[in-house]
Amino acid sequence: MRTHLWKKIDGAGANHEGSNSTNTPTDVTNSPIEADNNNARCENGTECSTAAEDVLADSESYYNNAKKYWSNVSPTVDGMLGGFGSISFIDIRGSEQFLKFLYKQKPAPGRKRALDCGAGIGRISKNLLLPLFEQVDLVEQDEHFCQTARTELADFGSKLGTVFNAGLQDFVPEPGRYDIIWAQWVLGHLTDEDTVRFLERCTNALTRGGMIVMKENFTTGDVVDVDRTDSSVTRPLVQMKQLLKQANMRVVKEQRQTSFPKELYPVYMLALRPTVKK
């Protein structure tokens, strides 16, 4: 699962080259354009919250619609980033700098195993995680993307671990396995409840000193932007932090991604550790 990057300006639809939909999609290290033509934008936060709740109420349809959407997306970098393939280099450089800072922390995470969540075709694994870790596992719900990732990453040999074909709402990582769990532009495809449960399962999957890193689009206000095209939501940062609290996670480091196009949502990287030390 990936999510689209752009937002809508002044309520107008935003179609982008590389998108397979006539409606405005959304994606993570998500973009700074806020809202799409299916979003319920309003001055009253309660009304907007209700719109998001309505979309998320039927979780089975929510996940099935997302699966159907991504099954029609091209297994390319441009496809993964909703037509914004040109930002991939900047995205990876920002993530590298963020990881370097995390390894100055005490205790620093290990460098043995990492998990790429919502991995798509393995863009982040290839350019960020595999060069830094002894082994990287991927989890991705679209089988076509999984097959592409296996092909694209074959040159890494045994450094490429298991490519799990599963949605994050169902995926249960092995306890105590990962030094870094990386989730980028994918949590908007999970309901609030499943986001909390996923983070709880990830907590159990961390090694001692391990961290979860999320990199996501966030709205600039207090409204949840709903995208019915790809079945995703873009949350306010404050709401995400409420979900982190429910999952007993604390933010170790927070940083905004710079140098992205102005039409994209603000993208933040959050490094997380369990509130209770392992």
TrEMBL record:
Recorded catalytic reaction(s): these are: N-terminal L-prolyl-L-prolyl-L-lysyl-[protein] + 2 S-adenosyl-L-methionine = N-terminal N,N-dimethyl-L-prolyl-L-prolyl-L-lysyl-[protein] + 2 S-adenosyl-L-homocysteine + 2 H(+); N-terminal L-alanyl-L-prolyl-L-lysyl-[protein] + 3 S-adenosyl-L-methionine = N-terminal N,N,N-trimethyl-L-alanyl-L-prolyl-L-lysyl-[protein] + 3 S-adenosyl-L-homocysteine + 3 H(+); N-terminal L-seryl-L-prolyl-L-lysyl-[protein] + 3 S-adenosyl-L-methionine = N-terminal N,N,N-trimethyl-L-seryl-L-prolyl-L-lysyl-[protein] + 3 S-adenosyl-L-homocysteine + 3 H(+)
Q: Where is the composition biased (Polar residues)?
A: 17-36
Q: What is this protein called?
A: Alpha N-terminal protein methyltransferase 1
The record's annotation in PANTHER family points to:
AD-003 - RELATED (PTHR12753), ALPHA N-TERMINAL PROTEIN METHYLTRANSFERASE 1 (PTHR12753:SF0)
- What organism is recorded for this protein? Anopheles stephensi (Indo-Pakistan malaria mosquito)
For this UniProt entry, the molecular function terms from Gene Ontology, in alphabetical order, are: N-terminal protein N-methyltransferase activity
Task: Give the GO biological process terms.
Answer: methylation
Q: Which keywords describe this protein according to UniProt? A: Methyltransferase, S-adenosyl-L-methionine, Transferase
Instruction: One Pfam family, please name it.
Output: Methyltransf_PK
Q: State which Enzyme Commission number(s) the record gives.
A: 2.1.1.244
| Record family assignment | Belongs to the methyltransferase superfamily. NTM1 family.
Map out region (Disordered) in residue numbers: 9-36
Q: Which SUPFAM superfamilies match?
A: S-adenosyl-L-methionine-dependent methyltransferases
Listed GO cellular component terms? cytoplasm
